[in-house]
Amino acid sequence: MKNVWKDVDAYLTQSLHMVEEAMDEVLEANREAGLPPIDVSASQGKFLYLLAKIKGAKRILEIGTLGGYSTIWMARALPQDGKLITLEYEQKHADVALRNLQRTNVASLVEIKVGPALKLLPLLAAKEEQSFDLIFIDADKGNNPHYLQWALTLSQPGSIIVIDNVVREGHVIDEESKDQSVIGSRALLQQLQSEGRLEATALQTVGIKGYDGFILGVVRDKG
Ligand code: SAM
After folding, report:
1. Which of 75, 99, 130, 149 is the one with CA 20 to 30 A from 173?
2. How many domains, the chain?
């Protein structure tokens, strides 16, 4: 990772008061539990929080919890009667996340569902009566095209969908890549071209997490 990206990220997060003891403790708890450091950065977490605020989101869905770092950022934007459902494959990650949600006082707003997201999403679609205002997709990247389909099923016109890690250090342009995450990103972009239900952009990012990027979209009005 380029040092300047990391240093500028540190400068920006400090300047804008995004560094906070409680959130540092969350990252420390993740580290102590042996979770991989693949959570979003503080700036990205704040970005998700701001999106939820701008949207006035009352219902948020996350695919890929890890230790709950991004979950906490988004949950903090919810009103008291809001709800965030987050899906996680690994029981151990979910256990760490629950403790982190409790320590940051957002556990009452969040429900962690454990299992493969592609099994949980149909159950959610069958059970949930209301759609989600914001959906953050951040799990196994090879399944992103499936997750986009479910996100569209579980949303309504005006819902925001964010899909993380689509640029893969630039490998997204490698059409010969055998990497499942790159293949997933390319299939996702192809799907967005043909799909038409999501008005989307893709932004490249650099920072403490290296070089990557995300897709941000809003579900179109039914025309
Ligand atoms: N959103 C988290 C954050 O920023 O703090 C980081 C999520 S991490 C990149 C991806 C998570 O997705 C991991 O905890 C992993 O166990 C989980 N995951 C991977 N495959 C999954 C699947 N098929 N269903 C649900 N979760 C999955």
Report:
1. 149
2. 1
From the CA of 138, how far away is ligand 1's center (Å)? 6
Tell me what ipTM this predicted complex has.
0.99
| Residue among 65, 96, 113, 141 whose CB has most ligand 1 atoms within 8 A, to mutate | 65
Token pair listed for 20: 């906070």
Q: Is 164 in the pocket of ligand 1 (CB under 6 A)?
A: no
Dist. CA 154–CA 97, nearest whole Å: 24
69 touches ligand 1 (CB under 6 Å): yes
Beta strands across the sheet bearing 198-207:
110-114, 83-88, 59-63, 134-137, 160-163, 210-219, 198-207
Ligand 1 binding pocket mutation candidate from 28, 61, 88 (most atoms within 8 A of CB): 88
CATH number of the CATH domain containing 29: 3.40.50.150
Residue 137 near residue 162 (C-beta atoms within 8 A): yes
Q: What is the pLDDT along the chain (223 residues), one digit of tens a residue?
A: 689 999 999 999 999 999 899 999 999 999 999 999 999 999 999 999 999 999 999 999 999 999 999 999 999 999 999 999 999 999 999 999 999 999 999 999 999 999 999 999 999 999 988 899 999 999 999 999 999 999 999 999 999 999 999 999 999 999 999 999 999 999 999 999 998 999 999 999 999 999 999 999 999 987 6
Q: Which residues span the domain enclosing 179?
A: 3-219
